[in-house]
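Note to self: the last two entries modelled the partners one at a time, which told us nothing about the interface. This time every component goes in together.
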Amino acid sequence: MIQYILRRVMLMIPSLLAISIVSFIIIQLPPGDYISSYVATLASSGELVDEAEIQSLRLAYGLDQPVYIQYIKWMGRVLQGDFGRSFEWKDKVTNIIWGRLALTVIFSLFALIMHWVIAFPLGIYSAVRKYSVGDYIATFIVFVGIAVPDFLLALVLMVFAFMQFNLSVGGLFSADYVNAPWSFAKVLDLLQHLWIPVIILGLSGTAGLIRTMRANLLDELHKPYVITARSKGLPELTLLLRYPVRAALNPFISTVGWSLPGLVSGATIIAIVLNLQMVGPLLLRALMSQDLFLAATLIMLLSVLTLIGTLLSDILLAWLDPRIRFH
Amino acid sequence: MEAEAKVFVASQWQLTWWKFRQHKPAMISAIVVIILYLIALFSEFIAPYAADKYRAGYAYAPPQSLQFFRQTPEGWRPDLYVYAHKMVIDLQAQKRTYAVDTEKIIPIRFMVKGDPYKLFGWFPGDIHLIGPRDPNEIIFLMGADRMGRDVFSRLIHGTRISMSIGLVGVALSLFLGILMGGVSGLYGGWVDSLIQRIIEFLRSIPTIPLWLGLAAALPPDWSPLRIYFGITIILSLIGWTGLARVVRGRFLSLRKEDFVMAARLDGTSEMRIIWEHMVPSFLSHIIASVTLSIPGMIISETALSFLGLGLRPPVVSWGVLLQETQNVYSVARAPWLMIPALAVMLAVVALNFLGDGLRDAADPYVRG
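The predicted structure of the combined assembly is written out below.
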C-alpha cells in the first residue's frame, strides 16, 4: 500500500513539471508582458513612462530574457521554496496566496461535506422509495442542480437577497473583519458568510451524486444477496446500510477524486461572481494583467490539488473494494 | 404476433426510434431543441428588431405585457397589442420611471415590415415574424437594457451564437475524440499508451483555470469571428478527451465480441469490420454522448462570456447578455435582464433530457 502511494507520488512529479511548463506558456501567450500592460494602464491615466525606465523595469523583473530562461530560473527558485514575487502586488507570491488558498480549501471541504450530507440520504431514500414524494423532491433538486449553472445560481441568489432583504451577499467577511487578525469572532463571521456560497456550490454538485447513488442502489436492491439477507430476518435498515449501500458506494468513491478539483474549479467562478477572497478572483486578475509568477503558482497549486484528489480517490477505492488490487 | 415479428426484422435505427418515441420528456425536449435551433437559424426574421438597435431615452424600460382583447363600442374584440410607455421623470429622485399609458395602444402584427436584414448574410429582407404594425413604434416585450435595446430581440439574436458554439465545439471534439480514441483502441501498444498519457495529462489540469488562462490569452484586437472560433477550440480541447475514452472503450470491448469474431472468420477485411460491424453498433451511443456534452459547452461559453473572457460585444450571445447582470444594482432595477439565464436553463435541460432519452434508446440492454 505504502509502496503504491509512493510510486503514485513519484509519478505526479513529471505531470507537475509538464503542467508548470504548459501554464507558463499559456500565461505568456498574449502579446506583450506585464510591463507593457502596466505601461498601458499608466498611459491611459495620462502618465508617460520613458523608454529607459521601461527597459530597466524589464531588466529588474527578468522579462528581457527568453521564456525558457525565465522558466528555468523560476523553477530553480520554486524548488528552493521561493515562488517568486508578484509584479502587481509587489509582494512575495506565497504571502498573497497563503490565506486565500486556505480559505479555498476550507470552502471546498465544506462543500464536499455538504454534497455528501445531502446526496447520501436523498439518494438512498429515492432509490428505496422509488416514485414517492421524497423521490420527486430529490429529482427536483437534481433537475435544478443540473440545469442551473452554479454561477447563475450565485447570481440569482445574490439578486434575490439584495432585492428581498437589501442584503449584500458578496464577500466572505463583514467590513469590520476583512483586515482584522484571526480570532474566534472572525471565524464566526466567516461562517456566517460562508453558508451561501457553500449552498450554491453544494447544490450544483449534489445533483450528480444523488442521481448516481439512486441508480447504483437501484441496481443492487434486487440482487439475490439482499433477498438472502432479508429472508434471514435482518432488520431492513441494518440490511440496507450493511450490504447494498456499501456496494453502491464504490462508483461514488471513485469519483471523489474528480469532485475535489471540480469543487476548486467550480469555486473559482463562484468566487469571482460573489467576490470572495479566494483563489479564483486572484487568478483571474493575475491572468488578465499577466502577473507571471502569481498566475503560474496558482495554476500549479490548483493542479496539485487535482492530482492529490485523484490519488485520494484511488486509495479510497482500493481500501473500500477488496477486489481492486494495487498494480 | 405481428408486432413481435416486426421487432425481429426491424433495423437497429428503427428499434432505437421506437424506444425513443416512448420517452415522453425526451420527445418534448427534442421538439424544444428543434425550435431553439430554428430560432438560431432564422433569428433575424423572428426578432422584432436588429440586435444593436437602441432607443435613446428608453433605458431600462420595463416589459410590456401583450393584450389579447380590446374594448370597442361593440364589446371586447380579439386583437393583439401592447400599451405604450409613458415616461415620468421623478424630479425628487432624479430618476426616470415608466408608467403604462392605457390611452395609447400599439398594435402588434405578424409578418410586419421592420429593420432591414440579410438572412444568412445573403438574402436581404425586412419582414419580421412579429413586431409593431408601424415600424416606428417601440415595443419591449421583455423590457429594455441599459442602452434602451430590446432584450427580447437580443435574446433571439443571441440564440444563434450560444446554440451553435456548442455544436461547433462538440463537432470539433467529436472529430478529435473519434480519431484519437479509434487509433488508441485499434492499434493498442505504444500509440495507445501515448494517447492515454496525453488524455490523463489534459485531465489533470484543472479545467476552469485552464479555460481562464487560454481565454485571457486571446488577443483583444481579434475580430469577433476569430474570438468565436478561439473559444470553441478552447472548449473542445478538454471535451475530446471524454469522447476519446468512450470510443476507445467501445473499440476494445467490441473487438472481443462474437459477431466481430464471426466476421473475421468469414474473411471480412479489417476496414469492413470497422465500418460495417463495429461503428454502427456504437454510433448511436456516440450520438447520445455528444448530445450530453453540448449543454456543458453552452454553460462554459456563458460563464466565460459572463466573466468578460469569452465573446465580447458587439457580438450577441446569452453570456454576453448576462454581462449586464454583473452589477446587482442594475438587476435590482431591471430584473428582466436575467431572462437570458432562463434561456440557458431551458436549453441545458432540454439537451440533457434529449441526451438521456437517446442514450436509453440506443442501449440495447435497457428495456423500454
